TrEMBL record:
Alphabetized UniProt keyword annotations: DNA-binding
Residue span, HTH tetR-type domain: 10-57
Keyword flag DNA-binding: yes
Native species: Tomitella fengzijianii
Coiled-coil parts of chain: none
Pfam families in UniProt: TetR_N
Stretches that traverse the bilayer: none
GO MF: DNA binding
Full protein name: TetR/AcrR family transcriptional regulator
DNA-binding recorded as keyword: yes
Annotated InterPro entries: Homeodomain-like_sf (IPR009057), HTH_TetR (IPR001647)
Domain of life: Bacteria
Length: 216
């Protein structure tokens, strides 16, 4: 297996350390060491800053834009648009997780969401305004758009509850995939194809649950 280049090694190391420990308390030196580098200026050289490295992790792992676009087109032509949109959200995420053995992408997302407002669909900002550990990430418009499309299908819920329900369902998928990754690291293998189908079914059920039932 070819050795990753320095830039790729730094991205992999940052993703892995954030997945394990969150965004806080990780030093630049730790990432450089974990990437097998000795040059303490490597992050500044390749990414400009720590925030630039985090943005590069997102860019390197968010590779399913075309797949998601095709699935959203299929959702528009489906008799069950909400089901199609759920697949358009889950499948590219699962595809990215499946590209790496082991994978840390869902765990990275899980740690990121730990510092974001509960209804991150409506308020995609950090819990602490201006938190330096949570830089703005470019290129999230497509994800916000699919969240909006899913929310628009939740006519059984009062308007203020729709984005909160979408955020809850999305968090469920992220945490479930993070659990799958941790099992993978520990050597407990499950079929990711079967897991994907179960995630889609459960996310759909969560989105369609009655509003009053969810409040009791």
């Amino acid at each position: 297996m070819p050795k990753p280049d320095t830039r790729e090694a730094l991205i992999d190391a940052a993703e892995r350390l954030v997945a394990a420990r969150g965004l806080r308390g990780i030093s630049v030196r730790e990432v450089i060491r974990a990437a097998g580098q000795r040059n303490h200026g490597a992050i500044a050289y390749y990414f400009g800053s720590w925030h630039g490295l985090l943005a590069a992790v997102w860019a390197a792992r968010s590779t399913g834009a075309e797949q998601q676009r095709q699935l959203r087109i299929a959702a528009e032509e489906s008799d069950d648009r909400l089901h199609g949109l759920v697949i358009a959200y889950v499948s590219p995420f699962v595809a990215e997780v499946s590209r790496h053995t082991p994978s840390y992408w869902a765990q990275f997302n899980e740690q990121w969401l730990a510092g974001i407002h509960a209804d991150f669909v409506n308020t995609p900002e950090p819990l602490v305004p201006g938190d330096p550990d949570y830089p703005p990430i470019r290129g999230m418009e497509a994800m916000q758009s699919i969240y909006a499309d899913i929310a628009a299908e939740l006519g059984h819920l009062a308007q203020p509850l729709r984005t909160a329900r979408v955020a809850l369902a999305a968090r469920f998928v992220v945490s479930a995939l993070a659990s799958w990754e941790r099992d993978q690291v520990s050597g407990v293998w499950q079929s990711l194809d079967d897991y994907e189908g179960e995630l889609c079914r459960l996310m759909l059920a969560l989105l369609r649950a009655d509003g009053e039932a969810a409040a009791t």
